[in-house]
Design goal:
Elements lengths: L11 E9 L4 E6 L3 E11 L3 H7 E7 L2 E7 H4 L9 E2 L3 E3 L5 E3 L3 E3 L3 E7 L5 E11 L9 E6 L2 E5 L13 E9 L2 E12 L10 E5 L7 E2 L3 H4 L10 E2 L3 E5 L7 E8 L5 E3 L2 E8 L6 E12 L4 E2 L5 H4 L20 E2 L4 E5 L3 E6 L9 E6 L6 E8 L3 E11 L5 E6 L2 E7 L6 E12 L2 E11 L10 E10 L2
Antiparallel strand pairs: 1-11, 2-10, 3-8, 3-9, 3-11, 4-5, 4-10, 6-7, 7-8, 12-23, 13-23, 14-22, 14-24, 15-20, 15-21, 15-23, 16-17, 16-22, 18-19, 19-20, 25-35, 26-29, 27-28, 28-35, 29-34, 30-33, 30-35, 31-32, 31-34
Protein backbone atom coordinates (compact mmCIF):
# COMPACT_ATOMS: atom_id res chain seq x y z
CA UNK A 1 0.00 0.00 0.00
CA UNK A 2 1.25 3.48 -0.88
CA UNK A 3 2.08 5.46 2.23
CA UNK A 4 3.19 9.06 2.11
CA UNK A 5 3.12 11.94 4.54
CA UNK A 6 5.18 12.93 7.53
CA UNK A 7 5.68 11.48 10.98
CA UNK A 8 3.68 13.96 13.08
CA UNK A 9 5.69 13.60 16.25
CA UNK A 10 7.47 16.74 17.51
CA UNK A 11 5.67 18.91 14.96
CA UNK A 12 3.13 21.69 15.35
CA UNK A 13 0.01 22.27 13.28
CA UNK A 14 -1.24 25.69 12.24
CA UNK A 15 -4.93 25.55 11.29
CA UNK A 16 -6.77 27.91 8.96
CA UNK A 17 -10.10 28.19 7.17
CA UNK A 18 -13.13 30.32 6.46
CA UNK A 19 -15.07 31.91 3.62
CA UNK A 20 -13.14 33.88 0.99
CA UNK A 21 -15.31 36.35 -0.88
CA UNK A 22 -14.82 37.22 -4.53
CA UNK A 23 -11.62 39.19 -4.93
CA UNK A 24 -10.57 38.55 -1.33
CA UNK A 25 -7.83 36.45 0.25
CA UNK A 26 -7.09 34.47 3.39
CA UNK A 27 -3.60 34.32 4.89
CA UNK A 28 -1.89 32.45 7.68
CA UNK A 29 1.55 33.37 9.03
CA UNK A 30 4.08 31.07 10.65
CA UNK A 31 6.59 33.16 12.58
CA UNK A 32 9.13 30.60 13.67
CA UNK A 33 11.90 28.70 11.86
CA UNK A 34 11.02 25.31 10.43
CA UNK A 35 9.71 23.45 7.42
CA UNK A 36 6.20 22.71 6.23
CA UNK A 37 5.87 18.94 6.12
CA UNK A 38 2.22 18.72 5.13
CA UNK A 39 -0.20 21.27 3.74
CA UNK A 40 -3.89 20.31 3.57
CA UNK A 41 -7.21 21.95 2.79
CA UNK A 42 -10.69 21.24 1.50
CA UNK A 43 -12.22 23.75 -0.88
CA UNK A 44 -15.98 24.10 -1.36
CA UNK A 45 -17.86 26.25 -3.87
CA UNK A 46 -21.02 26.18 -5.91
CA UNK A 47 -18.90 25.88 -9.07
CA UNK A 48 -16.07 23.70 -7.78
CA UNK A 49 -14.16 23.28 -11.08
CA UNK A 50 -13.97 27.05 -11.44
CA UNK A 51 -12.94 27.50 -7.81
CA UNK A 52 -10.10 24.97 -8.15
CA UNK A 53 -8.62 27.10 -10.92
CA UNK A 54 -9.44 30.65 -9.79
CA UNK A 55 -8.42 30.12 -6.15
CA UNK A 56 -4.65 30.58 -6.12
CA UNK A 57 -2.20 29.34 -3.49
CA UNK A 58 0.82 31.58 -2.95
CA UNK A 59 3.56 31.04 -0.37
CA UNK A 60 6.23 33.44 0.89
CA UNK A 61 9.33 32.10 2.59
CA UNK A 62 11.36 34.63 4.58
CA UNK A 63 9.56 37.50 2.85
CA UNK A 64 9.95 36.29 -0.75
CA UNK A 65 7.09 34.74 -2.71
CA UNK A 66 8.28 31.53 -4.40
CA UNK A 67 4.96 29.73 -5.03
CA UNK A 68 2.03 30.95 -7.14
CA UNK A 69 -0.16 28.12 -8.43
CA UNK A 70 -3.93 27.56 -8.70
CA UNK A 71 -5.08 25.23 -5.94
CA UNK A 72 -6.16 22.44 -8.29
CA UNK A 73 -2.81 22.25 -10.05
CA UNK A 74 -0.83 22.60 -6.81
CA UNK A 75 -2.44 19.42 -5.48
CA UNK A 76 -2.20 17.61 -8.83
CA UNK A 77 -5.89 17.43 -9.68
CA UNK A 78 -6.45 20.21 -12.19
CA UNK A 79 -10.14 21.14 -12.02
CA UNK A 80 -12.03 18.01 -13.18
CA UNK A 81 -10.53 14.83 -11.76
CA UNK A 82 -10.91 11.84 -9.46
CA UNK A 83 -9.54 11.27 -5.96
CA UNK A 84 -6.00 9.90 -6.14
CA UNK A 85 -2.75 9.55 -4.22
CA UNK A 86 0.91 9.92 -5.14
CA UNK A 87 4.02 10.15 -2.98
CA UNK A 88 3.73 13.93 -2.78
CA UNK A 89 -0.01 14.60 -3.17
CA UNK A 90 -3.35 13.16 -2.09
CA UNK A 91 -6.98 13.98 -2.89
CA UNK A 92 -9.50 12.01 -0.83
CA UNK A 93 -13.09 11.01 -1.63
CA UNK A 94 -14.41 13.87 0.51
CA UNK A 95 -12.23 16.42 -1.30
CA UNK A 96 -9.44 16.92 1.24
CA UNK A 97 -6.29 17.88 -0.68
CA UNK A 98 -2.84 17.38 0.82
CA UNK A 99 0.73 17.83 -0.32
CA UNK A 100 3.81 16.43 1.39
CA UNK A 101 6.60 18.51 -0.13
CA UNK A 102 9.12 19.53 2.52
CA UNK A 103 9.21 23.34 2.40
CA UNK A 104 11.89 24.81 4.69
CA UNK A 105 12.43 28.43 5.74
CA UNK A 106 14.84 30.29 8.00
CA UNK A 107 12.53 32.60 9.96
CA UNK A 108 8.97 32.85 8.67
CA UNK A 109 6.41 31.64 6.17
CA UNK A 110 3.16 33.12 4.89
CA UNK A 111 0.50 31.03 3.11
CA UNK A 112 -2.16 32.95 1.16
CA UNK A 113 -5.26 31.77 -0.69
CA UNK A 114 -6.61 34.36 -3.14
CA UNK A 115 -10.08 34.09 -4.66
CA UNK A 116 -9.87 35.49 -8.20
CA UNK A 117 -13.36 34.29 -9.08
CA UNK A 118 -16.80 35.84 -8.77
CA UNK A 119 -18.20 33.39 -6.19
CA UNK A 120 -17.51 32.74 -2.53
CA UNK A 121 -15.23 29.81 -1.73
CA UNK A 122 -15.06 28.07 1.62
CA UNK A 123 -11.81 26.65 3.01
CA UNK A 124 -12.33 23.81 5.48
CA UNK A 125 -9.84 21.67 7.37
CA UNK A 126 -6.91 23.85 6.35
CA UNK A 127 -3.71 22.95 8.17
CA UNK A 128 0.04 23.36 7.84
CA UNK A 129 2.13 20.83 9.74
CA UNK A 130 5.47 22.45 10.58
CA UNK A 131 8.50 20.60 11.86
CA UNK A 132 12.03 21.60 12.83
CA UNK A 133 14.62 22.48 10.23
CA UNK A 134 18.25 23.45 10.64
CA UNK A 135 18.91 25.88 7.79
CA UNK A 136 22.44 25.64 6.34
CA UNK A 137 24.38 26.32 3.16
CA UNK A 138 22.67 23.41 1.38
CA UNK A 139 19.08 24.35 2.24
CA UNK A 140 16.74 25.43 -0.57
CA UNK A 141 13.36 27.10 -0.85
CA UNK A 142 10.46 25.28 -2.50
CA UNK A 143 9.12 26.91 -5.68
CA UNK A 144 6.04 26.50 -7.84
CA UNK A 145 4.75 28.36 -10.88
CA UNK A 146 1.86 28.01 -13.34
CA UNK A 147 0.85 29.47 -16.65
CA UNK A 148 -1.56 28.64 -19.46
CA UNK A 149 -1.63 28.89 -23.23
CA UNK A 150 -5.30 29.79 -23.57
CA UNK A 151 -7.33 28.83 -26.64
CA UNK A 152 -4.12 28.43 -28.58
CA UNK A 153 -3.91 26.83 -32.03
CA UNK A 154 -2.50 23.29 -31.85
CA UNK A 155 -0.51 24.01 -35.05
CA UNK A 156 2.05 26.76 -35.35
CA UNK A 157 1.25 29.51 -37.83
CA UNK A 158 1.33 28.39 -41.45
CA UNK A 159 1.38 24.65 -40.73
CA UNK A 160 -1.19 22.42 -42.39
CA UNK A 161 -0.23 18.91 -41.22
CA UNK A 162 0.60 17.09 -37.97
CA UNK A 163 4.29 17.13 -37.17
CA UNK A 164 5.07 20.30 -39.07
CA UNK A 165 2.58 22.03 -36.78
CA UNK A 166 4.38 21.07 -33.54
CA UNK A 167 6.02 23.70 -31.35
CA UNK A 168 7.73 23.86 -27.95
CA UNK A 169 6.04 25.21 -24.82
CA UNK A 170 8.33 26.43 -22.06
CA UNK A 171 7.20 25.11 -18.69
CA UNK A 172 9.77 27.23 -16.84
CA UNK A 173 13.33 28.54 -17.09
CA UNK A 174 15.17 28.97 -13.79
CA UNK A 175 18.45 30.81 -13.21
CA UNK A 176 20.38 29.78 -10.11
CA UNK A 177 21.20 26.58 -8.25
CA UNK A 178 18.53 24.04 -7.44
CA UNK A 179 16.74 20.76 -8.13
CA UNK A 180 13.75 20.23 -10.43
CA UNK A 181 11.25 17.90 -8.73
CA UNK A 182 8.02 17.70 -10.69
CA UNK A 183 5.23 19.13 -12.78
CA UNK A 184 1.50 18.89 -13.47
CA UNK A 185 0.01 19.46 -16.92
CA UNK A 186 -3.67 20.34 -17.38
CA UNK A 187 -5.03 20.18 -20.93
CA UNK A 188 -8.39 20.87 -22.48
CA UNK A 189 -8.39 19.20 -25.89
CA UNK A 190 -10.52 20.69 -28.65
CA UNK A 191 -10.64 17.71 -31.02
CA UNK A 192 -11.28 13.97 -31.14
CA UNK A 193 -7.59 13.23 -31.59
CA UNK A 194 -4.48 12.71 -29.48
CA UNK A 195 -2.78 15.89 -28.35
CA UNK A 196 0.41 14.55 -26.73
CA UNK A 197 2.93 13.29 -29.29
CA UNK A 198 5.38 15.99 -28.20
CA UNK A 199 8.71 15.32 -26.48
CA UNK A 200 10.15 16.93 -23.37
CA UNK A 201 13.43 18.79 -23.85
CA UNK A 202 15.25 19.67 -20.64
CA UNK A 203 18.37 21.85 -20.85
CA UNK A 204 20.61 21.83 -17.76
CA UNK A 205 23.18 24.53 -17.00
CA UNK A 206 23.00 26.19 -20.39
CA UNK A 207 23.74 23.16 -22.53
CA UNK A 208 23.17 23.64 -26.28
CA UNK A 209 21.39 20.30 -26.74
CA UNK A 210 18.99 18.95 -24.09
CA UNK A 211 20.41 16.17 -21.91
CA UNK A 212 16.81 14.99 -21.38
CA UNK A 213 15.05 14.42 -24.73
CA UNK A 214 11.87 12.35 -24.54
CA UNK A 215 9.80 10.09 -26.78
CA UNK A 216 6.31 11.47 -26.22
CA UNK A 217 4.25 13.33 -23.65
CA UNK A 218 2.46 10.19 -22.49
CA UNK A 219 5.81 8.42 -22.03
CA UNK A 220 7.01 11.30 -19.89
CA UNK A 221 3.89 11.03 -17.70
CA UNK A 222 4.12 7.26 -17.30
CA UNK A 223 1.72 5.74 -19.83
CA UNK A 224 1.51 4.83 -23.51
CA UNK A 225 -0.70 4.75 -26.59
CA UNK A 226 -2.52 7.92 -25.45
CA UNK A 227 -4.71 5.80 -23.18
CA UNK A 228 -7.44 7.69 -21.27
CA UNK A 229 -7.71 5.39 -18.24
CA UNK A 230 -7.30 6.72 -14.70
CA UNK A 231 -4.12 5.72 -12.89
CA UNK A 232 -2.18 6.89 -9.84
CA UNK A 233 1.21 5.66 -8.66
CA UNK A 234 3.88 7.18 -6.42
CA UNK A 235 5.54 9.32 -9.08
CA UNK A 236 3.11 9.40 -12.05
CA UNK A 237 -0.63 10.03 -12.16
CA UNK A 238 -3.47 10.62 -14.58
CA UNK A 239 -6.45 11.47 -12.34
CA UNK A 240 -8.38 12.14 -15.55
CA UNK A 241 -7.56 11.26 -19.15
CA UNK A 242 -11.04 12.04 -20.46
CA UNK A 243 -9.66 14.42 -23.09
CA UNK A 244 -6.95 12.21 -24.51
CA UNK A 245 -8.83 10.82 -27.53
CA UNK A 246 -11.96 12.98 -27.57
CA UNK A 247 -12.57 16.63 -26.76
CA UNK A 248 -12.27 17.25 -23.04
CA UNK A 249 -10.11 17.56 -19.93
CA UNK A 250 -6.91 15.72 -19.00
CA UNK A 251 -4.50 16.18 -16.11
CA UNK A 252 -1.11 14.43 -15.87
CA UNK A 253 1.53 14.68 -13.13
CA UNK A 254 5.11 13.54 -12.76
CA UNK A 255 6.95 13.80 -9.47
CA UNK A 256 10.66 13.11 -9.05
CA UNK A 257 12.68 11.54 -6.25
CA UNK A 258 15.67 9.49 -7.38
CA UNK A 259 15.32 11.10 -10.83
CA UNK A 260 15.16 14.70 -9.56
CA UNK A 261 17.26 16.94 -11.82
CA UNK A 262 19.95 19.02 -10.09
CA UNK A 263 21.28 22.17 -11.73
CA UNK A 264 24.06 24.50 -10.67
CA UNK A 265 23.43 27.48 -12.99
CA UNK A 266 20.11 27.02 -14.78
CA UNK A 267 17.41 24.72 -16.06
CA UNK A 268 15.09 25.15 -19.02
CA UNK A 269 12.12 22.77 -19.37
CA UNK A 270 10.29 22.67 -22.71
CA UNK A 271 7.48 20.33 -23.78
CA UNK A 272 6.60 20.00 -27.44
CA UNK A 273 2.91 20.47 -28.21
CA UNK A 274 2.31 17.93 -31.03
CA UNK A 275 -1.35 17.36 -31.91
CA UNK A 276 -2.80 15.15 -34.64
CA UNK A 277 -5.51 17.69 -35.51
CA UNK A 278 -5.50 21.40 -36.16
CA UNK A 279 -7.75 22.61 -33.36
CA UNK A 280 -7.86 24.83 -30.27
CA UNK A 281 -6.47 23.75 -26.90
CA UNK A 282 -5.78 25.03 -23.41
CA UNK A 283 -2.32 23.89 -22.27
CA UNK A 284 -1.43 24.71 -18.66
CA UNK A 285 1.78 23.46 -16.98
CA UNK A 286 2.66 23.88 -13.31
CA UNK A 287 6.29 23.30 -12.36
CA UNK A 288 7.91 22.57 -9.00
CA UNK A 289 11.54 22.91 -7.94
CA UNK A 290 13.86 23.76 -5.06
CA UNK A 291 16.41 26.56 -5.35
CA UNK A 292 19.00 28.32 -3.27
CA UNK A 293 18.26 31.91 -2.21
CA UNK A 294 18.67 34.35 -5.09
CA UNK A 295 17.29 32.14 -7.86
CA UNK A 296 15.05 33.71 -10.50
CA UNK A 297 12.55 32.32 -13.00
CA UNK A 298 10.63 33.53 -16.03
CA UNK A 299 6.99 32.62 -15.24
CA UNK A 300 5.17 35.48 -13.54
CA UNK A 301 1.88 35.26 -11.60
CA UNK A 302 -1.01 35.60 -14.04
CA UNK A 303 -4.21 36.34 -12.13
CA UNK A 304 -6.07 37.37 -15.29
CA UNK A 305 -5.65 33.92 -16.86
CA UNK A 306 -6.34 32.05 -13.62
CA UNK A 307 -9.63 33.93 -13.34
CA UNK A 308 -10.85 32.89 -16.81
CA UNK A 309 -13.85 30.56 -17.04
CA UNK A 310 -12.58 26.99 -17.25
CA UNK A 311 -13.83 24.99 -20.25
CA UNK A 312 -15.89 21.90 -19.50
CA UNK A 313 -17.39 21.29 -22.96
CA UNK A 314 -15.74 21.46 -26.36
CA UNK A 315 -18.01 24.34 -27.32
CA UNK A 316 -16.40 26.38 -24.51
CA UNK A 317 -13.20 26.79 -26.56
CA UNK A 318 -14.20 25.81 -30.11
CA UNK A 319 -17.06 27.11 -32.25
CA UNK A 320 -19.05 23.92 -32.88
CA UNK A 321 -21.05 23.54 -36.09
CA UNK A 322 -24.71 22.73 -35.36
CA UNK A 323 -27.72 22.37 -37.61
CA UNK A 324 -30.73 24.32 -36.34
CA UNK A 325 -33.51 22.01 -35.20
CA UNK A 326 -31.35 18.88 -35.42
CA UNK A 327 -32.21 15.85 -33.27
CA UNK A 328 -28.65 14.62 -32.83
CA UNK A 329 -28.12 10.98 -33.79
CA UNK A 330 -25.44 10.45 -31.14
CA UNK A 331 -27.99 11.34 -28.43
CA UNK A 332 -30.64 8.82 -29.50
CA UNK A 333 -31.42 5.85 -27.30
CA UNK A 334 -30.70 2.39 -28.77
CA UNK A 335 -33.81 0.22 -28.34
CA UNK A 336 -32.58 -2.81 -30.26
CA UNK A 337 -29.42 -4.01 -32.01
CA UNK A 338 -29.15 -7.50 -33.50
CA UNK A 339 -25.45 -7.29 -34.36
CA UNK A 340 -22.37 -5.11 -34.42
CA UNK A 341 -21.56 -2.27 -32.04
CA UNK A 342 -22.87 1.27 -31.66
CA UNK A 343 -20.87 4.26 -30.47
CA UNK A 344 -20.59 8.02 -30.70
CA UNK A 345 -18.03 9.07 -33.28
CA UNK A 346 -16.51 12.53 -33.31
CA UNK A 347 -14.95 14.34 -36.22
CA UNK A 348 -15.06 18.07 -36.86
CA UNK A 349 -13.49 17.46 -40.26
CA UNK A 350 -16.60 15.56 -41.44
CA UNK A 351 -18.92 18.53 -40.90
CA UNK A 352 -21.37 16.60 -38.73
CA UNK A 353 -23.82 18.64 -36.68
CA UNK A 354 -22.42 18.90 -33.15
CA UNK A 355 -19.34 17.30 -34.75
CA UNK A 356 -20.55 13.79 -33.84
CA UNK A 357 -22.66 10.98 -35.28
CA UNK A 358 -24.06 7.69 -34.05
CA UNK A 359 -21.91 5.02 -35.70
CA UNK A 360 -23.07 1.42 -36.22
CA UNK A 361 -20.18 -0.82 -37.19
CA UNK A 362 -19.30 -4.51 -37.51
CA UNK A 363 -22.87 -5.43 -38.44
CA UNK A 364 -23.80 -8.00 -41.11
CA UNK A 365 -26.42 -8.18 -43.83
CA UNK A 366 -29.80 -8.72 -42.19
CA UNK A 367 -28.88 -6.99 -38.90
CA UNK A 368 -31.22 -4.37 -37.49
CA UNK A 369 -30.76 -1.26 -35.36
CA UNK A 370 -33.70 0.49 -33.69
CA UNK A 371 -33.28 4.03 -32.35
CA UNK A 372 -35.73 6.13 -30.39
CA UNK A 373 -36.32 9.77 -31.30
CA UNK A 374 -38.53 12.41 -29.64
CA UNK A 375 -41.34 14.49 -31.12
CA UNK A 376 -42.23 17.52 -29.01
CA UNK A 377 -45.56 18.44 -30.63
CA UNK A 378 -48.01 16.28 -32.56
CA UNK A 379 -48.21 17.08 -36.24
CA UNK A 380 -47.45 16.16 -39.80
CA UNK A 381 -43.73 16.23 -40.56
CA UNK A 382 -41.31 15.43 -43.33
CA UNK A 383 -38.58 13.47 -41.56
CA UNK A 384 -35.15 14.42 -42.86
CA UNK A 385 -32.07 12.35 -42.01
CA UNK A 386 -28.45 13.36 -42.46
CA UNK A 387 -26.64 10.10 -43.30
CA UNK A 388 -22.93 9.51 -43.63
CA UNK A 389 -21.51 7.81 -46.71
CA UNK A 390 -18.07 6.27 -47.25
CA UNK A 391 -16.26 3.46 -49.02
CA UNK A 392 -17.12 0.90 -46.32
CA UNK A 393 -20.77 1.89 -45.72
CA UNK A 394 -23.62 -0.41 -46.70
CA UNK A 395 -27.08 -0.27 -48.24
CA UNK A 396 -29.81 0.27 -45.64
CA UNK A 397 -33.61 0.12 -45.50
CA UNK A 398 -35.08 2.64 -43.06
CA UNK A 399 -38.52 2.73 -41.44
CA UNK A 400 -40.20 5.41 -39.33
CA UNK A 401 -42.26 3.57 -36.73
CA UNK A 402 -43.69 0.77 -38.89
CA UNK A 403 -43.75 2.69 -42.17
CA UNK A 404 -41.08 2.00 -44.78
CA UNK A 405 -39.19 5.20 -45.51
CA UNK A 406 -36.76 4.19 -48.22
CA UNK A 407 -33.66 2.28 -49.25
CA UNK A 408 -30.32 4.10 -49.32
CA UNK A 409 -26.95 3.10 -50.77
CA UNK A 410 -24.32 4.85 -48.63
CA UNK A 411 -21.24 3.92 -50.66
CA UNK A 412 -18.98 6.84 -51.54
CA UNK A 413 -15.30 7.30 -52.36
CA UNK A 414 -14.43 9.43 -49.35
CA UNK A 415 -16.32 10.39 -46.22
CA UNK A 416 -19.28 12.73 -46.76
CA UNK A 417 -22.86 13.19 -45.62
CA UNK A 418 -26.08 14.44 -47.07
CA UNK A 419 -29.65 15.01 -45.99
CA UNK A 420 -32.23 12.55 -47.36
CA UNK A 421 -36.01 12.51 -46.98
CA UNK A 422 -37.65 9.68 -45.06
CA UNK A 423 -41.08 10.81 -46.21
CA UNK A 424 -43.98 12.68 -44.61
CA UNK A 425 -45.46 11.13 -41.47
CA UNK A 426 -48.17 12.01 -38.96
CA UNK A 427 -46.47 11.80 -35.58
CA UNK A 428 -47.93 12.02 -32.09
CA UNK A 429 -46.08 13.83 -29.34
CA UNK A 430 -43.71 11.48 -27.53
CA UNK A 431 -41.18 8.83 -28.51
CA UNK A 432 -40.96 7.18 -31.95
CA UNK A 433 -38.84 4.49 -33.58
CA UNK A 434 -36.34 4.72 -36.41
CA UNK A 435 -35.45 1.25 -37.71
CA UNK A 436 -32.34 0.70 -39.84
CA UNK A 437 -31.74 -2.67 -41.54
CA UNK A 438 -28.54 -3.65 -43.36
CA UNK A 439 -29.74 -5.07 -46.67
CA UNK A 440 -26.61 -5.26 -48.79
CA UNK A 441 -23.58 -3.41 -50.11
CA UNK A 442 -22.54 -1.69 -53.30
CA UNK A 443 -20.32 -3.86 -55.56
CA UNK A 444 -17.59 -1.21 -55.26
CA UNK A 445 -17.80 -1.00 -51.45
CA UNK A 446 -15.62 -2.59 -48.82
CA UNK A 447 -18.02 -5.08 -47.22
CA UNK A 448 -17.99 -3.62 -43.71
CA UNK A 449 -21.69 -2.63 -43.67
CA UNK A 450 -21.11 0.60 -41.74
CA UNK A 451 -23.94 3.02 -41.02
CA UNK A 452 -23.84 6.56 -39.60
CA UNK A 453 -26.64 8.92 -38.61
CA UNK A 454 -25.67 12.52 -38.04
CA UNK A 455 -29.12 13.88 -37.16
CA UNK A 456 -32.85 13.83 -37.82
CA UNK A 457 -34.80 16.99 -38.61
CA UNK A 458 -38.60 17.33 -38.51
CA UNK A 459 -40.01 19.76 -41.08
CA UNK A 460 -43.67 20.70 -40.43
CA UNK A 461 -46.05 20.06 -43.34
CA UNK A 462 -49.66 21.21 -43.88
Amino acid sequence: MLRSGPDNSRRRTTDFGGTIGAGQDLSVAIDRPGAIRRLSLNLEAQNLPQALRSTVLSIEFDGKQTVWVPVGEFFGRGYLSEPHQTWYTEVTEDGLMSTFWVMPFQESCKITLTNLGDQDVVIRDGSALVGRWEWDERSMYFHGCWHQLTEVSSFKEGATAPGEGAFDVNYVTVEGEGVFVGDTLTVFNGAAAWWGEGDEKIFVDGEAFPSHFGTGTEDYYGYAWCRPEYFASPFHAQPSGAGNLVPGFTVNSRYRSLDAIPFTRSIKFDMELWHWHHTTVNFAPASFWYARPGASWNIEPDPGTAALTVPQERSDIVEVYKVEGAIEGEDLKVLERTGGTVERQGGAQFRWSNEEQVWWKFGAEGDRLVLEFPVEAAGRYEVMASLTKAVDYGIVAISVDDTAAGRFDRFNNGVANDEVSLGVHTLAAGQHKLTVELVGSNPQAVDSYMFGLDYLRLVPKP
